[in-house]
Amino acid sequence: MDIHGKPIDERIDWLFGLADRHSAIFRSPEAWLAREHYLAEHPTAIAVLKCMDGRINIPVATNTPVGILMPFRNLGGIFDLGWPHLGEVLAHHVQRVVSTGRQVVFLVTYHYSQGDPRRGCAGFQYDTAAAIAHTYEIRRQVEHIFGSDHGTVYPLVCGFETDEDALVIHGTAGDKLDLSTLTSSDRATLELRLAALLPDMPARMRADLLPLLYGNLAHIENVRAQIRRNERLLDIEHREWMICLGRGFDFLHTPNIALIIGPYSPNLDVPIRRAAGIIEANMQAGRIPSDGFLLLASVPYDEIGVDRARAELKSRFLSTFAADVIRAEFPRLGEQMAMRTAVLDWRSRRLETITVG
Fold first, then answer.
1. Which residues are in the Carboxysome Shell Carbonic Anhydrase catalytic domain (predicted)?
2. Domain 238-354 class, CATH top level
3. Which CATH class is domain 42-233?
């Protein structure tokens, strides 16, 4: 079903149905055992710093079980670890992982389109070189905080080509491994290629990174089959019809549904304005209906009581703040805005709507 063309009320119902199904699957015994089994075999924690673009879906592109990769999203994949909230969240994540004896790989990503630069990253005005330069600055910041020996935390610069969902792994000597140039027959050589590309990466980390590369090779073949059947064009163009603000949107594993903005930047109005502009452009171009779009705020919590209550207040603030920005900057779009405010039980991934008032 192509949900993009449905009336807004049907799209919202579909969305929350998707969230409910995701939660039910996530907390099922089979899924829990699958995650435990995967992490027992591949204990390295992998976090992904990425753009808010709805096409950037690393778990899907690598065939990785849901709940394994920790996502951090912002406009253009633009981050500054000096931002107070972001620095605290990343440090807390690393400390929690390391305290269990595990290592951490940060995939610091940029994205681009091989077929048309205008399908690239709007956050960098489609300037891929600028996006790559920024990822290396983030890499330096990660090294400043967590050390440059990479024994425990490894920042890995990684490109994502959105036409074929192909990963591009950048090496320590300026070389790179573009998975779009390989086939499934190259699977046996990936371990040696990765060792040559990243000689300073601990062997345990490399071993745990390999399943993502294997999965990406298989995914690229599926995407190419879609392209041959003329089923891919709409998936590589902007068709987002909702703005998600906050964290806890793992259930959105369908491409081109949402523009996801993490609550990290001190200038949160900037990515909100950019996202609203993309939504408005999608309506004007007829890529989505003009009857409305959804603004969804979500904040995760770990424990009931104080932690959940604080998440409620934060989610209400994010929802109100974003709505005020959109109404002030895009008054016509503001009239077409449906709003939902929620918190997310991180243990079960259950999305719970709350009232704004």
1. 105-170
2. alpha beta
3. alpha beta
